[in-house]
Amino acid sequence: MARIVCRFVFEGEAVAKGRPKFARQGGFVRTYTPNKTETYETAIGMHARLAMRAAGQPLAADEAVTVDVLVERKPPKSWSKKKAAAAAGQPITGKPDADNLIKAILDGLNDVAFLDDAQVAGLTFFRRWADADRVTVEVRALHAEVG
Structure pTM? Predict the structure, then answer.
């Protein structure tokens, strides 16, 4: 039986993990995460922290977890109302890539919902058209059964 570590809804557009940027400082090259990605990961972490505080379910450092992610996007403004209504609930494919969306969310959960995303034993991801942009995340701790 899995217990919920945290569950939250982020109201806003999902952001894909951006490629690292490089800047020269003196004789050195510095690598940094793009601002949009860093802001999004911080917001995901803050939502998770608040949800964990409300749930009161801390996670053990060696505990395996599963993560369920639902990304919902509102249709582009260029779509007709009829096309947008027909798309509601339908799956989304294309850019941004699912793995980049997941990476940004898991990195935002690092050191908050779990120590490191290496603890993630299972992951479900789905994205669909909806009436608003939002991301729903649920992290569950898996209890090892000793037989």
Answer: 0.85
